[in-house]
Amino acid sequence: MKVAIVGASGAVGQEFLRVLDERNFPIDELLLFGSSRSAGRAYPFRGKQVVVKELKHNDDFKGVDIAFTSAGAGTSKEFAETITRYGAIMIDNSSAFRMDDDVPLVVPEVNGDDAFVRPRGIIANPNCTTIQMVVALNAIEALSHIKRVHVATYQAASGAGASAMAELKKQFEQLVAGEQPTVEKFFFQLAYNLIPQVDVFTDNLYTKEEMKMYNETRKIMHSDIAVSATCVRVPVMRAHSEAIWVETERPVSVAEAREAFAHAPGVVLEDDPENRVYPMPLFKAGCDPVYVGRIRSDISNPNGLTFWTVSDQIKKGAALNAVQIAEYLLAHKQ
Ligand SMILES: NC(=O)c1ccc[n+]([C@@H]2O[C@H](COP(=O)([O-])OP(=O)(O)OC[C@H]3O[C@@H](n4cnc5c(N)ncnc54)[C@H](OP(=O)(O)O)[C@@H]3O)[C@@H](O)[C@H]2O)c1
Question: Residue 334 above 90 pLDDT?
Answer without folding.
Answer: no
